[in-house]
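Example 345, ligand S-adenosylmethionine.
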Amino acid sequence: MTSATGSPAARARRIVALNTAYFQAKALQSAVELGLFELLADRAADVDQIRAELGVQHRMFKDFLDALAGLDLLEVRDGRYRTAELAREFLLPTVPTYLGGTARQHARLHYHAWAQLTEALRDGKAKSAVAAQGTLAYPKQYEDLDRARQIMLHMDAHNGFTADELARELDWSRYTSFVDVGGGRGNVASRIATAHPHLRGAVFDLPALRPLFDELVATAGTAERVTFHGGDFFATDLPEADVLVFGHVLPDWPVADRRELLRRAHKAVRPGGAVVLYDAMIDPDERDPEVLLQRINHTMIRDDSSAYSLQQARDYLAEAGFAVDRVVATDTITRDHLAIGIKSA
Ligand SMILES: C[S@@+](CC[C@H](N)C(=O)[O-])C[C@H]1O[C@@H](n2cnc3c(N)ncnc32)[C@H](O)[C@@H]1O
């Protein structure tokens, strides 16, 4: 639709819809925080039952439920509500593609940072509690294990789809081992190992994540084949393997640190092996506002965070000594690209 179509009021509503788009975001986030989708996953209930079980007071609660039904997240029949198909697929904590963790993280952190977008645009500084912690942000946030689990749920919402693309895109039959560097609690490593039972995998990440890794691999049934190496990737040699993966890791760091990580990766990859980067890399022709706003979102959270371009991905790989194999787009939430480099045999 161009801006000239529709009546003046219809055109004005487009502006109003933009101005109030956060109503929908907050409705989704509050429903997740209240545990509404779990409550109504297996049974329908009327507004008074739901109100009593969730302990909510507001007289507009029925409107809240009806709005969620209008957003296709609840179904309503004869005054009784239950979780709709879309929410069953992505908003029940038991599903492998759970997006509730990222909804909670946006409510807790991102929403507050975006409230200061104008100031951030003016002074060029990220506006989140994470930004205030600087380079110590990860270890600081992992001091509380529940907070760390929440962060992992947020990361895994985004990396799960990429893991499945990565499992498909690389010819894993040529390799027997891999390390996911900055691999969090092991969601990606576990999914790749599940898709390719001949592989042995490892996660290299900060030691505080070990208990969460242990939980995940026990649930996924991959504890026998995926191990955890705790350490600081700027201070410790990376474990050797046929393939090293860096996913959503490089944008967190200044360019010199990215180069250092890939130099270390080149040392750790066995001859003939590969390094894989996955990130929402910048395509200079990108005009999709969703992609552009996601990119801004990262820099609202962390000062050092900056996306790199498809060409920079090639340059990073080549500078570290890898032959650039290919850079390919993936069908993932964050529209990641995979950049694959090969170490000569
Ligand atoms: C944005 S997350 C990406 C996690 C995962 N690869 C993904 O795609 O969702 C960055 C990861 O780097 C890890 N990390 C940060 N600093 C690190 C360090 N100095 N040494 C090892 N891992 C680190 C964090 O703990 C976190 O798991």
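Summary: Residues 138, 155, 158-159, 182-184, 188, 205-206, 232-234, 247-249, 252 surround S-adenosylmethionine (CB under 6 Å).
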